[in-house]
Write a structure and sequence with these properties.
single chain, 215 residues, Nuclear Transport Factor 2, Chain: A, globular
Length: 215
């Protein structure tokens, strides 16, 4: 995938929840899922363009932003469990904790370096399908900029505290299913601890690569 496309994709992935911390939970719980995604997307694009630490790829700052702003809008346990697959049920509480930590870091490191490419992007929402009473929906959108539009869809579930994202479709590929195929191979070969070690090693390699580019 071209670096500019990755940057536009990264912006929209972060757009899922970067600015939600400023909104009361009562309002968030009443907000329609497509309206929530549109509002957050527009606000986050502005934030990315103005936050020099995010744009420069400073990983500790980005992780802090993710923890404070994005995670409240994501059912990350469900996302991680789905990515790991059936082996999640056999994992201990400590293994599940490690899997979530390493998976989050993997996702953040994958997209953080591309944020500096964000420039003229806007979000265009597609019409919602389904019933207003649905509790599990897909919100469809496109990232538009100087290149071809990039499809970005969100799977959300309705909870007592509002809509939560648990999967993303980027350019026709669902994130959870994409990682599940990789993780299943690791689990089959090395078990849960082997998967944790493999993700951790990828994170170390990514971190070393980022440090090398800045030096």
């Amino acid at each position: 995938m071209k670096r500019r496309s990755l940057g536009r994709m990264a912006a929209a992935v972060l757009a899922a929840g970067l600015m939600a911390g400023a909104w009361p939970l009562a309002q968030a719980s009443d907000e329609a899922p497509d309206a929530m995604i549109k509002r957050l997307s527009d606000e986050v694009l502005t934030t990315i363009k103005s936050d020099k630490q995010v744009r420069s790829g400073e990983i500790n700052h980005i992780i802090a932003v993710v923890d404070a702003k994005i995670m409240p809008n994501v059912n990350f346990q469900r996302m991680t469990a789905s990515a790991v697959g059936p082996a999640w049920r056999e994992a201990t509480a400590e293994q599940r904790k490690r899997l979530q930590e390493e998976f989050k870091l993997l996702l953040v490191r994958t997209y953080s370096g591309a944020l500096s490419q964000v420039s003229e992007e806007t979000i265009s929402m597609k019409p919602m399908r389904g019933s207003p009473t649905d509790t599990d929906v897909i919100v469809r959108s496109e990232i538009r900029g100087r290149g071809d539009p990039i499809q970005l869809d969100y799977r959300l579930e309705k909870t007592a505290s509002g809509w939560k994202i648990y999967n993303l479709n980027v350019l026709g590929v669902w994130l959870v299913e994409n990682y599940r195929s990789q993780f299943t191979q690791e689990v089959n070969a090395k078990g849960i601890d082997g998967l944790i070690a493999s993700i951790a090693e990828r994170n170390k390699t990514n971190a070393a690569g980022s440090a090398g580019k800045k030096s």
